[in-house]
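Input/output pair, single chain:
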Amino acid sequence: MEKEIQRAISSRINRRGERSNQMSHSKDGEGGFFSSGKFSSDYPMRIMWKRGFIRLVLVAGILWMLLILLVLLFHVWSCQSSYSFFSGCPIPVANNPDKIVIPERGSSDDIVKNLSYFMEDELVNNGSQPSPLFGGHESWSQREQSFKLKSSMKVHCGFMHGGGAEMDPMDIKYVSKCRFVVASGIFDGYDVPHQPSNISDRSKQLFCFLMVVDEISLDFIKENATVRKDINGGLWVGIWRLVLLKHPPYDEPRRNGKVPKILTHRLFPQAQYSIWIDGKMELIVDPLLILERYLWRGKNTFAIAQHKHHHSIYEEADANKRRKRYARPLIDLHMKIYRYEGMEPWSLKKSTISDVPEGAIIVREHTAMSNLFSCLWFNEVNLFTPRDQLSFGYVVYRLGGAFKFFMFPNCEYYSLFVLHPHTREHSSKVEWVKSLSEFKGSGSSMKESRGGLGLWTPYPGDLDSVVLPPVVRTSKAG
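Output:
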């Protein structure tokens, strides 16, 4: 084959030889590739290399264009499609928020009809504590009584006088008018507000979009986003009204974030409906459609997504230890208390589809029973670890099926939002603790001084005999 190529090239050279010589003579003998009237001996090899290089460039260009096209298609699909990228799950919401019929009356409670809260920290009144705690000093006996349902109940539910998390009177006045709320929160500067999309004009008029922040986050947002001030002094970032909580009640930012997340009904007492979303999330579905789908359509008062990987709180606890989300011995102690109190690992025999939620979204109607559940859930977070997913299923278990809620598929959760990364990773010394002995002596400074006190208060039971259930790790990602 190569000989045939060489013969063809030689023939072509001979045919063009005379013209090449004439051209070389007309240029006063200047050199160049054709100046001698003959091609150089490596000309065939140059032709082959040239053709190969051109083909290589064309193939690389096509592959590059295909890669760019795939990236663009993925971005459009993940942000705008009504299907979850992870599982292809359709969003089962209505099409038009303007046609949603809002119930004229709220849901009625058959069990708990009147709910009130302790507001004074009893130990402070006795002079044994220098300052009140936000969650109060709930005793083990008071905790036990709080799970016994009655028509009228009084429970601990944060917001003890002098315990922190105070709102500005200007914000209190504003939120008192909010009946429908989309709430979120940013603490310790881990996020910046993400603007919701696909929000109808009706929802913009109906809902208050409230972003709860601490002072560190407010300063961070001012440096990294456009903050405007209205004529009344209120601060806004796009559609979000910033609500400052002064004097954070806890040492741990993650625990501070549970105040607006779980106690939404305490911060915004006039709200009849609320949708909580974590600060790292961008809402891409109209909130009226969310209320219709998760509450009104099934006559629910509380809805939360199922965890993607775990069903049992003991699985979730194991994952938290592996990912260093809190001190491992304190997570074990937390789980030993629940195991001692009869909390079984999740199984198909249970009436709930899972004991572990994806807590980044909570949809609520603020009924007495719904509010009671939120209070009891928060009290567990206040007493033990700030990992609220460990406590959710336990409170459901203690209420003995009286608390009804809708746990929807995790794939729908991924279809309601775009998840954004935090501005930085959270880290604290307590997350690296491997044994309780590290909290002794100079290590005692790692203990939280205002939260998790139930882990350091003598428990009225023999926990030494408790053996935690074995855990089979079904997911590397979990």
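The mean pLDDT is 87. The first strand starts at residue 114 and ends at 117.
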